[in-house]
Amino acid sequence: MPAAAAALPPHDETRPNVMREAAVQVAQAQPGPTPVKRAGAAAQLGTATRRPGREVFGFADAGSLGDTTVGYPSWDFSQLSTVAYFGLSVGPSGALNQDGGWNVMNSPTFAGFRDTAHAAGARVVLTLVLQDLGANMCSGLANRQATVNQAVPLVTSMNVDGVNLDYEGTYQQCADGQTNQAMLVDLAARLRAALPAGRSYLTIDTYASSAADTTACNCGFFDVRSLNAYVDAFFVMEYALESSNSSRPPLSCASGTLCLSPTSPLGGYYWNDTTTNQQYAGLVGAAKVIMGVPYYGDKACVASTAPNGASAGNYATSGYYYNKSIAGQSTVNSFSAHRDANDPAGNERWDSYYFNDTSPGGFTCWRELYWDDASSLATKYQLVLAQGLRGVGLWNLNLGGGTAASPELWSTLAQYFNCPASVSVSPAQAFTTFQVSLAAPCAAASFDVQAADLTLGQGFQIIGSTAGTQLTVSGQPSHSYAYQARSHSAGGVSAWSALATTTVSATAGSPRPFGVLYTLDGWGGVHGDDSPPLATSAYWPGWSIARALKALPGGQSGVVLDGWGGLHGSGGPLTVTPTAYWPGWDIARDLALLPDGSGGYVLDGWGGLHPFGLNGHPAPPAARVSAYWPGWDIARKLVVFGDGSGGYVLDGWGGLHAFAVGAAPLPTDPAVSAYWPGWDIARDLALVPGGRSGYVLDGWGGLHQFGGATPLAAPAYWPGWDIARSIVIYAPTAGYVLDGWGGIHEFGGAPAIASYAYWPGWDIARGLSSG
Description:
Number of strands: 42
Strand content: 25-35%
Structural class: alpha+beta
Radius of gyration: 36 Å
Strand order of the largest sheet: 1-2-3-4-5-6-7-13
Largest sheet: 8 strands, parallel, barrel
Oligomer: single chain
């Protein structure tokens, strides 16, 4: 006699019942009338470009596929990445049964479902269903080539994107000598080889315990390690765990007794989501794990309303959409909602109530229901993100209901997986300052906005962030702009939105008493301060080499100086005729432009002035200087007079030294009100518009007049901290001081700047420029 087969360790312990029950019902489904899409629901979202940031894999039950309350016409497909049609049953011959699932697939209802999903960018796959614990599983798998031969052509003829396998059994040796486990792996291999390119998305539904079974003994129905070579992802059925957990701590209920508990606990129980995901990720990698969550719950009669009551009969499952209505039903009394104490992090919902149905066939008892509401589902979505999984799977969408029936389900999905921003703006602007409006389908923590000046033909750059729903932006008269937004939410950062465009009128009024104002950062970025965006032609991320920025007349473009002496356009094209350049030597310190913007001078650290011309203009005449320090890097800034005849150079100790252009007489060095011999603390200087007086800024923020300028109090002062960087004056006593973090401090009645770049804790701001 042959030896008896060795007993297998415990395996396939968490095999659920809910999908098997659904398969029985689907086999008898009727197509029903062609549904009418409900206005404002998925029908209106078909061309959206927004997609979930991770996989959101939802099952679509054929039995109520066309229902306008819970079926596909009510779903927001933009929140879904893949929808699995459940399903097509497989018979013992390997052929697909021509039952209710088959009939619905060949109906206009399915066509509408598929086309609506595709229009929103979501995949549709066909679920092949074989659920059997005995000979039929062995027979169906033995005839697996027949399944492949029939299913693969369907993928093309039904215009879908792949296959989902829902084969549910337990490990067994079949009569032909093969194990059902090995034949299932081979089925996946054959499908992988046969599915056509572009329609080959292959997933498989596996038990929560299957990864542990594979690692411990490879004696479960699913050989997860071998299947991994052929499938794109594992939909892990992390539900129906209450029966497996009932006899284990913390419940430790008697064998054969079902004590109610969360069907999908986050933790706190032997079988739980956190551990299951870790087991799968360790075996196949987190990027292939879809965490299946329940849109249903379990209920039963119990002896009392104490938590985790033992089932005393009338056990049933019911969907989310039904569960949330129980409190208001006429047969329900003494309703109370709770959270499971054994799994506090999971925030699992359970309800107790007295059910009093005295109609024929009814019953009365105390009842408990354990289910996942939007709050407990949110903890599972957080786990998906925290563990870096491929995404979340939903069993099933019909049980949850559509956007009108269960808006909280869809908004919670959006919060964690797809919170796209939208931006809108009036198409025409009568003022140079105006607002863009922002929105998202979830509770976005904040929005980023980027803009492009279409008139200048420059690319996008981020111009601001806000926690509100509006952002004030600026433009130039006669210019057109495009805006995009992205949201920050619990699920991360969304993609950039679709464009919104506007044009500023040629006669637009400006609320600013100055033209434009820009901040330069050390990497070369140019940031508008309540001013329109300007793109840069050079940027050095990670290298603080930008030294100065000057706006050209009109403020629609500018010039950036790097430490080697290079000049780079901002906001428009720039050609430069000869100037000095010191490759590899950080010695350039500042630049100044002539009043007409035709050219200017670069200042080196020794005090040398180097003329350059811009955009086809010749370089201006050589400058004659009153001070020069060869070998000593002490020159810091320069300014040019309003008539272009000369200017001043500022040294690090606070001294001012005149220079003349061409044959103009050399001006007298102005007397200064502060001087720090031996201390390199002077940071910037600015002239009063139209004059030769002005102010020196020291590193602590002090303002020091020269040439008869009116004394001014510092708008901000940091004694002992060298953090002040730049000063701009647009009126005799009004202007701004820039600190190294990007803060802008107004003085002399200048209006506060509402929108500007800021880097708290990072000394990266280098200069201010107005135009």
